[in-house]
């Protein structure tokens, strides 16, 4: 079986400061993967480098054996919420439509069919009643759900979400993880950056543990081990205590 994602020897630096060193791993199709590690570990950098949004010093990335360029329209990316300009004047519906039809341009009016599909995707995340709102007027959880709707509208095969659960309400978190699990059951591959360890056991079937270097990668029960975690979080034992409570 072809890997959904293959990452080989990726190095990234910012102005000479190394952010990622020699990161290699692969992900099977249909996996729901958590990317974990402490703040500043390079999780966001990894996603951006995989998607060619920032340059790599070295390394190779393949999606279903192909280059990102060829696969772009099959890939959905939901950036870290804090990195999005929420003052940008756009309605919820338009955010979903423009997200799924990047070639439409600002001056062409979307067709009925496109609007109907966008509304269907908003309904899936429980946001159909908010379609005329400005995205800046939504709560964190609602914004995150709209961005998931946009990713759904795109009919992507591979999804990258950067910290989708930060600063959102419990109901939105539940809606989002439910949809991600359903997508993965339907064969979609999903990578989710998640900066703390609570719930990783419930949420993911594979983990990538990062702290500039790859500390571990594989099935959750193989990776969610005290030695791996203490290496990644370098002795921040409160996380490990939490893990023991969970087990
Ligand atoms: P994480 O998402 O795991 O918190 P990041 O990928 O955002 O980590 O950052 C990894 C490291 O790279 C950090 O030390 C951060 O300060 C640095 N970094 C991230 N983005 C930039 C940037 N645009 N310019 C310079 N340094 C950056
Ligand atoms: Mg980050």
TrEMBL record:
The record ties this protein, via PROSITE patterns, to: ABC_TRANSPORTER_1 (PS00211), ABC_TRANSPORTER_2 (PS50893)
GO MF annotation list: ATP binding
- SUPFAM superfamilies from the UniProt entry: P-loop containing nucleoside triphosphate hydrolases
Q: Name one Pfam family in it.
A: ABC_tran
Give UniProt keywords alphabetically: ATP-binding, Nucleotide-binding, Transport
Annotated ranges, domain ABC transporter: 5-237
Which InterPro entries does this entry report, sorted A to Z? AAA+_ATPase, ABC_transporter-like_ATP-bd, ABC_transporter-like_CS, Metal_Ion_Import_ABC, P-loop_NTPase
Q: Which family does it belong to?
A: Belongs to the ABC transporter superfamily.
What protein is this chain from?
Answer: Manganese ABC transporter, ATP-binding protein SitB
Name its species. Answer: Bacillus badius
């Amino acid at each position: 079986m072809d890997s959904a994602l293959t990452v080989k020897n990726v190095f990234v630096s910012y102005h000479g400061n190394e952010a990622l060193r020699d990161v290699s791993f692969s992900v099977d199709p249909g996996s729901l993967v958590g990317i974990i590690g402490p703040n500043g570990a390079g999780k966001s950098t990894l996603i951006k480098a995989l998607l060619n949004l920032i340059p790599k010093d070295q390394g190779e990335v393949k999606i279903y054996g192909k280059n990102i360029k060829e696969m772009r329209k099959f890939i959905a990316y939901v950036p870290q919420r804090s990195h999005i300009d929420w003052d940008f004047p756009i309605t919820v519906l338009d955010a979903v439509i423009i997200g799924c039809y990047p070639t439409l341009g600002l001056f062409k009016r979307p067709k009925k069919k496109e609007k109907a599909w966008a509304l269907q995707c908003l309904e899936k995340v429980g946001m159909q009643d908010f379609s005329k709102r400005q995205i800046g007027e939504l709560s964190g959880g609602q914004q995150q759900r709209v961005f998931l709707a946009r990713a759904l509208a795109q009919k992507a095969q591979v999804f990258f979400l950067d910290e989708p659960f930060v600063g959102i309400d419990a109901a939105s978190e539940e809606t989002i993880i439910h949809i991600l699990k359903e997508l993965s059951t339907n064969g979609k591959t999903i990578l989710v950056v998640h900066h703390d360890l609570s719930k990783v056991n419930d949420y993911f079937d594979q983990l990538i543990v990062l702290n500039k270097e790859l500390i571990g990668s594989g099935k959750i029960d193989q990776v969610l081990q005290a030695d791996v975690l203490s290496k990644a979080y370098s002795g921040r034992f409160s996380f490990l205590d939490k893990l023991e409570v969970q087990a």
